[in-house]
Amino acid sequence: MSVPVFWSPTLGDSHVLVLDGPEGHHAAAVRRVQVGERVRVTDGHGSYVEGLVAVVGDRSVEVAVDRRESVPVPQPRLTVVQALPKRERAQLTVQALVEVGVDRVVPWASERSQVRVTGERGERLVARWRAWAAEAGKQARRSWFCEVVDLAATAQVAQMLADADVGLVLHEEADDPLGGVSQPSAGEVVLVIGPEGGLGKAELAALGVATSSSGALRGSDASSRPRNAPLKDAVRAVRLGDTVLRTSTAGAVAAGVVLAQTRWRSATS
């Protein structure tokens, strides 16, 4: 049986770790860990400790630490830019991305997103996404938690694609299958997932995706990239397969395709 995972911002260096605050309350009163039960506590930045529960208080738990480990940063790092899904599907979207192994999630207010948020509403949305990501990270037993950044505009997404080692935009009309794209062994892959209504031509052009004479989508060539952009492969439009997935599931499936070609081939616990 897998040991339950909890989070602490610091792990200390002693043989006893006290888990308190909201996480200590969750362990003691919600998860109801028992004395003698083995648990893991991670800082979400690659390090974790394990040990047996020694004391359970009303809102805290003491762990007798007998194991300390550090996990290297996963390579390549995978960022998914996710167009905002409907509210009722947002939590499922975030959880699936985290469980699959995405390193960074970027909420994107795309042109055709069915959710419109600005100001305080946008801040609350990002806060919910971060909370969901943290819980999913513990459930998935991740040592490196998934980062959820602030709500991004299209210009910011375009810059992320330009800065990436591999920039990919998922689209049902793309010529190239995602499974046929060579992935790097290190660096960063940025994968853009559009909204339910799809990406408009102006939005595609802003992201660096051009339309061929036949109407098919292709990646931009080097001459169409910003003058100050790094000399890396052009942004590529890619498709998943013969079916069209909803935005809430497309990201996790596409991320799985990328990771199956890279990290999953040499996965370690």
Descriptive report:
- The protein is of the alpha/beta class.
- It folds into two domains: 5-70, Ribosomal Protein L25, Chain P, CATH 2.40.240; 77-266, Alpha/beta knot.
- Helix content is 29%, strand content 26%.
- Helix 2 crosses helix 3 (119-139) and helix 2 (87-100) runs parallel beside helix 6.
- The radius of gyration is 21 Å and the shape is elongated.
- End-to-end Cα distance: 15 Å
The helical percent reads 25-40%
Mean pLDDT: 88
Count of DSSP E strands?
14
CATH architectural name of the largest domain: 3-Layer(aba) Sandwich
Name the CATH class of the largest domain.
Alpha Beta
C-alpha-based Rg, rounded: 21 Å
The biggest sheet, with number of strands, parallel, antiparallel or mixed sense and barrel status, is: 7 strands, parallel
CATH topology of the largest domain: Alpha/beta knot
Order of helices and strands: EEHEEEEHEHEHEEEHEEEH
Number of helices: 6
